[in-house]
Each structure stands twice: as structure tokens, then as C-alpha cells.
Amino acid sequence: MTVNVSKPAINVREKLAELDKPTGIAGEAMLRAETPQEQFQLIGAGRRNMLINGAMQHWQRGTGATAVGSSGDYLPDRFKFWNSTGGAYTFERSTDTPNGFAYSTKLQVTTADTSLASGDYSIFAQHLEVQDCLSARMGYSDAQELTLSFWVKSSKTGTYSMTLHKMEGTDYFCHRTFNIDAANTWEYKSFTYPPNTLSGISANGTGTGFRIVCWLAAGSAFYSSGTEGQWSASSNRYASNQNVNWMDSTSNDFYITGVQLEVGKVATPFEHRSYGEELALCQRYYYQVGKESGSYMSNVGFARGGYLNLVYATVGFPTEMRTTPTLGYGGTFEGVTYSGGYSAVTTTGPVVGDGRGKKVGGLRVEFPSNWTAGDEVLIKDSDGTGFISYDAEL
Amino acid sequence: MFNILDNNHIFCGTHNLTIPIEPANRHYQEVLDAIIAEGAACFDGDIPEDLQAAADEKQFNQQLSAYRTAIARLDQYIVADGRAEVTEMQPTGEQVWNEETMEMEDVMHEVITVTAIDPVEPTVTRLVYSEDDPMAEPTEETIENPLITTDNAERTAAQAVVDATPQAVKDAA
């Protein structure tokens, strides 16, 4: 028996024409990608920014102009600033930003240093915890490129350096440069660091894995003798010898925001995380209560028999801190009790740590007069100046 | 100025900080740095023995690291002299039968293990323009090759580190 089967006709010419469908540059890049990982990076899927507070949203310590010291100071969360020159500069929060950002960090030279000594430097950096550096796969044959992008504006044009400094174990450095082409104009910069196959970072650890360092001024001791964009263990490969001396005039300012470090060789748009999410990331390294008049600053404390001018209390941290933190304090506190009737006493401390931990901090506040044994005491910010801080920064 | 608060904490009265005795805490490391740099002058009262021991250990490790880096720098070739080629005989992976010894023997070949590098030119010539007369023809000036200058400076600095390193640290390297 013979069965006849009919199929719809196919226009071969038409099908071939469909293959010629234009895909655009991005589409072609996707088609050219050799692995799902490359495609993942091309579409910018998942969490991208390895840095925290790149948009300069969080300023738990304060926002006003503050002088930068030689041993390193924080003001915007997670970014640390140093000044070890004969000059001086301040840092502060600014609302001068490119579109899409609320804040930037503004730096302003307040005392000029026109002639840097060889060991002088002005820098700022963000340190990344060892266990957050895994995606860079440093030290392996499949180590990844890292791309840094940011918005910058300065009255001082010229060449600046950004160094990726691997710090765990043997120090390794790779510097790249960027130019501020036009004075007082927001410019978007991005560049890629090559894979570091030379030296690795542990899988676990709470110390610094690597840091990204911006050089505002570099004495000759920090000039790199190496080529830009090459990894080296040589300790003199910090900054380009073409680096400007940003400290040379009190007219010099410097603004930066939208800082993003990501795996891959393409800078993707800045990853805006939610305000609360970014704050929680910051609070692993620094947490502050107070500076809010009348606000409560601790769980209920108690006056200890035998030391009735002392109140013991605890502060629960919103997230586990990186390590046992340093307790700091300042301003005026108010102790309030309702035990046996309302009573309030103000003090400026001292407030010292009592007990230790990464999830809850203990503290002891000294008052100028005695409480009654067993009094339950609430610690409050008296006038908007009182604060307690826990610092576990790198 | 620091003082011991209790077994777990150091108090810094200058900055109102209670610093835990915890190596991962940056302020604790700064206390050790202060003890290394200033000794007893940074402490109110005697420095506790375990804290002094921690500072001594940190200083030892810093000196050891600096010493190793300096030695590695001095081991690099002198750019003014260049570097000679070094070869050695290595097995190719093949073997042949030796009828005299009646055993299989490795086939050897010469392999360059260190490539030669020529010395750089001792001097370079550069054009110097007159600051007083921008229109004047530039003059030529011969100076030491900057690569040699940098190499010499880095070697001198490395040698200074080696010379200043205590013998106990050198022995541990």
C-alpha cells in the first residue's frame, strides 16, 4: 500500500533571509559570547558593584566639612581618606552631582603644598573584605578582569591614578590612570584592570582582600617604575609618575560619586541598590546611634549596686559586624528612669565598652550622681549631640 | 594616650574610644603601631606584657617582610650591567637504549633557563629649552639613563633596609 504525505512548501530563500536579521552590536556580542558566564556579564545580570556606598548615600558619622588626618579618616561610609602632606584638605557631603545621583563626596584643599616630599601622599580608598573578593578569582589561571567606573569633577585637570592593591598575603599592585580633561565638569571614567593570576586571596577571612586607591597627590617614593595596567609585587608601583599634585592650590576641589567595581571588562550602568540595603551593608563596618535629640540609644540599662553612678546597657547591632568593634562616644547623654517616679540626669560620659561581641555591644555610662540600686535607666541623646558608635572598619 | 580598661579593652582618652583586644580590629592594630613607634610614652602606666609581646611580634613581622622585599630587589639584575644567559641540560622526555650500560637513558637537550638582557645605554640625550628665550634653539644635554638612576636609587634603598635589619630578623628569613 502506498501512503502519500504532503508537507507545506518551504521558501528556502525566505528562511535564509531571516538568518540575516540585524542584531545590533549588543546582540552580536551576545552571539559571540563563548560561555553563559560571558552572556551573564554582558547583560549585567545579578549583583555587580563590589563596592559599598559607591553613590555616597550614607554618612553615618556626619556630613559637614572635616579635616582629613594622616592616619586615615572616614566620613562617607566605607571610604577612607588620608592626607600625609604639608598641606591640608577637607571632605564633606555635596549635592553637586551628575544626573541620577543624590550626593557626591567633595574634597577641598585648605592649605596648599606646592612641593611634595618624596614620602608625601593624599589618597582615598575603599577596602574590600577577603570573603567579598572571591569573584575576582585572584591567583587562579581564570582570574577575572575588574572594571572600575565613576563620575568625577575637579577644578584641577590632569592625570590621576587609581591603584588596585591586593593586600592579603604578599602585596600586589596594578595602577591605571584617568584624566580630568575639563575643569569643573562632571566626567564619566571607566577602565579595566587585567586579571591578577600572580597571587591569590583566601576564600574566607574578614581582613582586607584588596583595596581600590585613588591618588590625589603622590611623592616620588610612590611613583611606579612599571607599566600602567600590569600587576607587580614591587612596592614602588603605587601611582603614575604623571600624577598631578592636587594639593598645590587652595583653589583645588574634587568631587566623586557613582563608584563601581565589577567583574568583567565592560563598565555597566551604576547599580543603584535600595537605601536600606546599602545602609545595612555599611553597618557591618560602622554603626552609630544618637545625634537625634531625644532618641533612645540603647536597650534598657540598670544601675549597678555598689557603683550607683554607673548604668550598664546593651546595644543590638542591626547586622553582624565584621569583627569586635571599637566603641566611641561623644556629646551629651540623658539617663531617664521611671522606677520610683520620673528622674533624668545628663552626662557627657565617659561611656566605655563592657563585654564584647559582633552582634550586641555592652556599654557603661558614668553619671555625675547616683541612681537607686535596681533602677531601670534609658539612655537618650540629650540635645542632638550625643552618640555612641561601633567601628569595625577595615 | 592609652590605658588598660579591663582584660578585654584598652581605652583611648584622646578620642573617647574603647578598643577591644582583638587583632582584626583596626584600632587595636593602631595601638600596637603606637607602642612600636613611641614605646611607653603612648601608655598611661606600664604596658601590659601580652600587649608589648604583640607589638614586638608585629614589628618583627614588619621587619621580616621589608627584609625579604629588599633582598628580592637586590637579587634583580643591575640594568646598567645587563644579564647573562643561563642554560642547563634537561631531559626531553624521550629515552634511548644505551648498549654500553645496557640501560635506558634520558635524551638531554640544552634549555635556556634565564634569558640574556642587554645592558641599557649608560646615558641618554635630551633637548633643553631656554626658559629665558622660548624662541631659542634647544640645546642637547647628556644625562645618566633614568632607568639606571631609578635602579640605583631602588638598590640603595633596599640595601639600607638590609643594613638596618636586626640580625634576629635576618636569621629568621
Helix content of chain B: 25-40%
Portion of residues within helices of chain A: under 10%
Terminal CA distance of chain B: 34 Å
Compute the separation of the termini of chain A in Å: 84 Å
Secondary-structure element series of chain A: HHHEEEEEEEEEEEEHEEEEEEEEEE
Strand content of chain A: 35-45%
**Sheet with most strands of chain B:** 3 strands, antiparallel
* Morphology of chain B: flat
What best-fitting shape of chain A do the alpha-carbon axes yield? globular
Low-confidence runs of chain B:
none
Number of helices of chain A: 4
The tally of helices of chain B reads 4
What ranges of chain A have pLDDT less than 50 throughout 5 or more consecutive residues? none
Task: Tell me about this structure.
The complex is a heterodimer of chains A (394) and B (173). By secondary structure, chain A is mainly beta. Chain A folds into two domains: 44-283, Jelly Rolls (Sandwich), CATH 2.60.120.260; 286-391, no CATH class. Chain A has helices spanning 12-19, 24-32, 36-42, 275-283, and strands spanning 66-67, 73-74, 80-84, 88-94, 104-111, 121-129, 146-154, 158-166, 172-180, 187-193, 208-218, 253-263, 286-290, 301-304, 307-316, 326-330, 333-337, 343-347, 351-353, 360-366, 376-381, 387-391. In chain A, the strands form four sheets. In chain A, strands 18-17-21-14-15-20-19 form a seven-stranded antiparallel beta sheet, with no helix packed on it. A six-stranded antiparallel beta sheet of chain A has the order 1-4-5-12-7-10, with no helix packed on it. In chain A, strands 2-3-6-11-8-9 form a six-stranded antiparallel beta sheet, with no helix packed on it. Chain A is globular. By secondary structure, chain B is α+β, with helices and mostly antiparallel strands. In chain B, 38% of the residues lie in helices and 29% in strands. Chain B has four helices and seven strands; from the N terminus they run E-E-E-H-H-E-E-E-E-H-H. Chain B has helices at residues 26-38, 49-75, 146-164, 167-172; strands at 2-6, 9-12, 17-20, 86-98, 103-114, 123-128, 139-144. The model of chain B has no long low-confidence stretch (mean pLDDT 92). Chains A and B meet through strand 16 and strand 19 of A and strand 3, helix 1 and helix 2 of B. Strand 16 of chain A pairs antiparallel with strand 3 of chain B, so a sheet runs across the interface.
